[in-house]
């Protein structure tokens, strides 16, 4: 039990989407892109005059998120993608409720 005698070394906090140790550039870009589009659609969904943009971004984010979920590799990527899909869906619904594409 030599680990009990010495001082405990803690690992520094690292935020990464590559928990398997391999780089996944395309999947990371899709995950973060889905999240950003979803947040933008969600925010614009509350602006009544931006209903067309919110609806379009919501649909794009939702469809892109489904593809990103299909090709994702790690669990953190999937978590970010699901948050983006939900935000896109809510943004699209708010945009539709405020007038949709008309």
TrEMBL record:
Superkingdom of origin organism: Bacteria
Species lineage: Bacteria, Bacillati, Actinomycetota, Actinomycetes, Streptosporangiales
Organism: Acrocarpospora phusangensis
Protein's name according to its UniProt entry: Uncharacterized protein
Keywords: Membrane, Transmembrane, Transmembrane helix
Annotated transmembrane regions: 29-48, 54-73, 80-101
């Amino acid at each position: 039990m030599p680990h009990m005698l010495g001082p405990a070394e803690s690992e520094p906090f690292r935020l990464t989407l590559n928990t398997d140790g391999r780089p996944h550039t395309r999947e990371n870009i899709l995950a973060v892109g889905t999240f950003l589009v979803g947040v933008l659609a969600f925010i614009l969904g509350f602006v009544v005059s931006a209903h067309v943009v919110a609806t379009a971004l919501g649909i794009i984010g939702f469809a892109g998120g489904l593809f990103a979920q299909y090709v994702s590799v790690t669990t953190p990527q999937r978590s970010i993608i699901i948050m983006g899909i939900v935000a896109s869906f809510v943004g699209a619904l708010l945009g539709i409720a405020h007038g949709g594409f008309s």
